[in-house]
Design brief:
Elements: E1 16-20, H1 27-34, E2 39-42, H2 46-54, H3 58-64, H4 68-71, E3 75-79, H5 87-97, E4 102-107, H6 111-115, E5 125-129, H7 135-138, H8 143-149, H9 153-156, H10 161-180, H11 187-199, H12 206-213, H13 217-229, E6 233-238, E7 253-256, H14 259-265, H15 276-296, E8 303-307, E9 313-318, E10 321-325, H16 337-346, E11 349-354, E12 360-364, E13 367-373, H17 374-382
Parallel strand pairs: 1-4, 1-5, 2-3, 3-4, 6-8, 10-11, 11-13
Antiparallel strand pairs: 6-7, 8-9, 9-10, 12-13
Helix pairs in contact: 8-14, 10-14, 11-12, 12-13
């Protein structure tokens, strides 16, 4: 399945970059298409890994051996760079001392680099991130594919997505986490993934999850941090600006990076928007679109959720607008109590994203709420006309 990716990775001559993203999101394919004349060095290849892990300086020697007139303007792509952190010292030296060449350092985990104190090039490399497919890349909302296959490129277009999801979770994710975090016993982490599905998209209670997994609270926190460092999931933190009521300020939520992986772990199969599970999956999808937009648009605005001490909640707060996600078409004031209270306290623009056919504006008391069909909302979001 050929899809033009949205990521805009353009480098002036001599500029280097990191490209991060979960495994199989399409980073390497994208780079081959975007930079067909680049030199690729893939640390996933065993002979390449053995060569440079034993002698990281070889990469410098080999590049210096290229005649200067041919070397100028060359791009070197290092794939799975986190597997040999020591090579970053050599790359740092070349960025400083060899003019006119660029490095694109591609990785699926920053954990080993951070934990080993690896050289992250002191701000000399720009940062990009690759996500699974997002709406402007597909221009369609095939809910069966989005929820049952997921948006990882290889899975979305496959008739064998269930087998691929199983392999991704059990042959890659669990093994890779075990290696990345040096976990001696994998069973507690497998239990953690099972328990995670119960609290996915919800406020995280680390103590309860630790009890259910049979590990301590610190271990559970480390599991979440591992998933975040591997771009397998994201924390969503609460909105902390206080107004007229007590609010939650310290308890995050957590969202996995792909709808297919999340639904495979929770054993959920989408068959229509008529269950509470479908509402949870729909909210998850909207979060992923907002997260991808926030990152790729390079905005400094953060994404939050809101909850007060009485349990009134708003799914997402972004750029001083509030967004509630609903699968039902007829929206009542009871359905959006938290949204209306937030609008009253913060005078924010209020939105409901749902499965209606036409956009409309409804009035609840003195407040106006925009009711968005999901596709029109996504068109407005990605065309930068929403804000």
């Amino acid at each position: 399945m050929s899809v033009k990716r949205l990521l805009n990775l353009s480098l002036p001559q001599g500029q280097s970059a990191f490209l991060w993203g979960a495994r199989k999101t399409g980073k390497t394919t994208f780079l081959h298409q975007r930079f067909p004349n680049a030199i690729f060095i893939d640390f996933l290849q065993s002979e390449v890994f053995a060569k440079y892990s034993l002698n990281p300086h070889y990469i410098r020697s080999e590049i210096l051996a290229i005649p200067e007139d041919k070397r100028n303007g060359m791009i070197f792509v290092i794939d799975e760079v986190q597997k040999i952190p020591q090579v970053l010292n050599e790359i740092h030296w070349m960025i400083e001392n060899i003019k006119g060449i660029s490095f694109i350092l591609c990785g699926s985990s920053s954990r080993k680099l951070k934990s080993s104190g690896a050289n992250l090039l002191g701000g000399r490399a720009w940062r990009y991130q690759m996500f699974p497919f997002c709406y402007p890349e597909l221009k369609e909302l095939n809910w069966n594919r989005i929820f049952n296959r997921g948006l990882i490129p290889e899975h979305y277009g496959s008739e064998f997505a269930l087998k691929s999801l199983s392999a991704y979770v059990y042959d890659y994710l669990i093994n890779e986490v075990q290696l990345e975090a040096n976990i001696r016993k994998r069973e507690p982490f497998i239990r953690f993934l099972d328990v995670l599905t119960l609290s996915h998209t919800e406020m995280i209670n680390f103590t309860n999850i630790a009890r259910d997994c049979g590990v301590n609270k610190a271990t559970v926190k480390s599991y979440f941090e591992i998933l975040e460092d591997m771009y397998i999931g994201y924390f969503l933190h609460p909105y902390t600006k206080r107004k007229n009521r007590q609010i939650v300020t310290q308890i995050p939520k957590f969202y996995l990076f792909d709808t297919g992986v999340a639904n495979y772990l929770s054993k959920y199969t989408f068959s229509g928007f008529h269950t509470s599970d479908s509402g949870k999956a729909f909210e998850h999808y909207i979060f992923l679109e907002l997260k991808a937009y926030q990152t790729m648009s390079e905005t400094r605005d953060e994404l939050f959720y809101y909850r007060d001490s009485e349990g009134h909640e708003v799914d997402f707060i972004f750029r001083d607008q509030a967004f509630e996600v609903k699968t039902r078409q007829n929206i009542t004031s009871k359905d959006i109590r938290g949204l209306l209270l937030f609008g009253k306290d913060y005078r924010a623009k209020l939105n409901v994203i749902c499965t209606v056919d036409k956009k409309r504006i409804e009035t609840f008391g003195t407040q106006s709420v925009t009711i968005w069909p999901v596709q029109e909302f996504l068109e407005s979001l990605w065309s930068n006309s929403l804000f």
